[in-house]
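Let us work through a complete example step by step.
Step 1: write down the sequence.
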Amino acid sequence: MIRAYKFLMRPTVGQDQALSEMLRDHCSLYNGALQERRDAYRHVSKTSVTYGMQSAQLKDIRALDAECQGRWSFSSQQATLRRLDKAFAAFFRRIKAGQAPGYPRFRGVNWFDTVDFPKDGDGCRWDSTPHDPVTRVRFQGVGHVKVHQHRPIVGKVKTVSVKREGRKWFVVLTAEQDQPEPLPATGRVVGIDLGIANFLADSGGGFVPNSRHGRANAAKLEAAQQALSKFPRVRRDKRTANHRRAVEKVTKLHGRVRRQRLDHAHKTALTLVREHDFIAHEDLKIRNMVRAARPKPHPDKPGAFLPSGAAAKTALNRSIWDAGWGVFLTILHAKAESAGREVIAVDPRNTSRQCPQCGHTSAENRPTQEKFHCVSCGHTAHADTVGAMNVLRAGLVRREAQPA
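Step 2: predict the structure and record it as tokens.
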């Protein structure tokens, strides 16, 4: 079992500058490798450049540019090239699947914020001074950086990553550990229905309110974005101090919303895992749900379009992103695995239209967003509770059908 740990680093001024230079040089390596692949395909008879070919060039690149590329870890630079190779693999996969290709893009310095070290001890060393009461991590070319380790690490550290968020630096570790001791059985099962009005409803009639962190901070974010938009677009090294402060304010506000959303997801998932042995949820295709509304050309007026409800769809998409369903489900599965709980995703079709009493399925069973009224047997309940009950029933059926 692999667990991830994220700790705040407290670098000195010199180490902060060295970490920034490390990100800059890895970004330059990424962009250079991308440019080589593009040029080889366009100008050399559509020749494909592979990761192996580019990795073999690293030794010469480090020798020619010893002041920049030569001072960083060889394995971390290989990880950066693998990152580009994965981007191209995903690009070709999307082409074969008939999806929007999304050709890999060049990264600006502000958009390249992570450097990976594939193995602890190769270019990096976690807890590099074990006899020091202060935890430190050592990076090649940077030195021993203090770390605020707020919880112990269980298992053997496998990989180490450096991540920049705004003006803060974090170290992200992955550790391999044995399967932990499962939580005591509760004998309870639950189905959950994710929504917008309420974050989720459970099959027992309970509700978790939607905190809407994005909407709560929308006014501050809008003001900060407007203040930032007043500055002209210039190169990063020519930006004024006021412009940098405006960028930092926007970054800080977005970071606060992200942390609030994560905190809400962690607490909600932990409560579900502690109180239930089995959890069923809808298998939501969130990426399909938040697609923009397609324009509808007017049949009689060339160049004109019919109303497509784009504004309402945009508002719905924003609410779905603000709820953070994908993040919550990822956290729920991770916590359930650690606790020895079982989580099953079921088909969401007609879960809010099927009567849990008589089984009658009809669109007329849900006259409003919140109300469920079966036209066959007259059963009434909250529509989200009905959906959660049907999700639980489908989850239990699927669990029984699974081979032992």
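Step 3: interpret the result. The mean pLDDT is 91.
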